[in-house]
Design brief:
This protein is mainly α and 219 residues long. It folds into two domains: 28-85, Arc Repressor Mutant, subunit A (Orthogonal Bundle); 87-214, Tetracycline Repressor, domain 2. Helix content is 68%, strand content 0%. It contains eleven helices and no strands. The protein has helices at 18-24, 29-52, 59-66, 70-76, 80-85, 90-98, 106-138, 140-146, 154-165, 172-194, 201-213. Helix 6 (90-98) packs antiparallel against helix 7 and helix 7 packs across helix 10 (172-194). The model is unreliable at 1-14 (pLDDT under 50).
Length: 219
């Protein structure tokens, strides 16, 4: 390999995929660096977990692999469980849903937005997503914490529903709708991981919403 240095700097690399671009767009440079640090910690954790298992992987090992201190790890993730249960994609989901026509039925908005986002995610983060959902399905402590309020996907859909309606508090009907969507999407990704990722998860999500839109008449 030649030791000659380039005379001009290479162009700055852009986000790896459209969802990453959507995540980074509203952020300052400092916030983008924090996002990338968080993602690096998670990627290194999943690499270690794939080699030695969840229980055998320590925070100390994860921090060392990500080249950060343990105190830095805990600034980004309160616990090892939070590393698996949390992600950066909620803002992208909210933005995609709010970009849909305001008069479009909410189930249709979710179906179109989530299927599109999932196809983009699968292009670059399929294995990470599969690892995450396998862990949630297999590790009892993760399954238990998944349904705590901070990790409940229902909250995301309630946020969008109330914003679209221009109200402060969600109605009973909104809560029922959000609960149904959250349960359907959770069951879909868990099924995908149980089957080893052999099916197209975007197609599974599309089918799940077809069931919801059809009022369960597909049963």
């Amino acid at each position: 390999m030649s030791a000659t240095r380039p005379t001009t700097a290479p162009p700055a690399a852009g986000p790896a995929h459209p969802v990453q671009a959507m995540l980074e767009a509203p952020l300052s440079l400092r916030e983008r660096k924090k996002l990338k640090t968080r993602q690096t910690i998670r990627r290194e954790a999943y690499r270690l977990i794939a080699d030695q298992g969840y229980e055998s992987t320590t925070v100390e090992q994860i921090a060392a692999a990500a080249e950060v201190s343990q105190s830095t790890f805990f600034r980004y993730f309160a616990t090892k469980e939070d590393l698996v249960l949390s992600d950066e994609y909620d803002p992208a989901v909210v933005a995609a849903l709010l970009a849909r026509p305001a008069d479009e039925p909410f189930l249709r908005s979710c179906r179109e937005a989530l299927v599109g986002l999932m196809r983009e995610l699968l292009r670059s983060e399929r294995e990470e997503l599969l690892t995450r959902m396998r862990l949630i399905g297999e590790v009892p402590s993760l399954r238990a914490r998944m349904y705590e309020s901070a990790n409940d996907p229902q909250q995301l859909y309630l946020t969008v529903l109330t914003r679209r309606a221009g109200i402060e508090e969600p109605t009973f009907e909104m809560r029922v709708t959000a609960a149904a969507i959250g349960a359907a999407t959770t069951e879909t990704v868990l099924k995908w991981s149980r089957d080893g990722g052999t099916e197209d998860i975007a197609d599974l999500i599309d089918h799940a919403f077809a069931v919801l839109e059809g009022g369960f008449t597909l049963l």
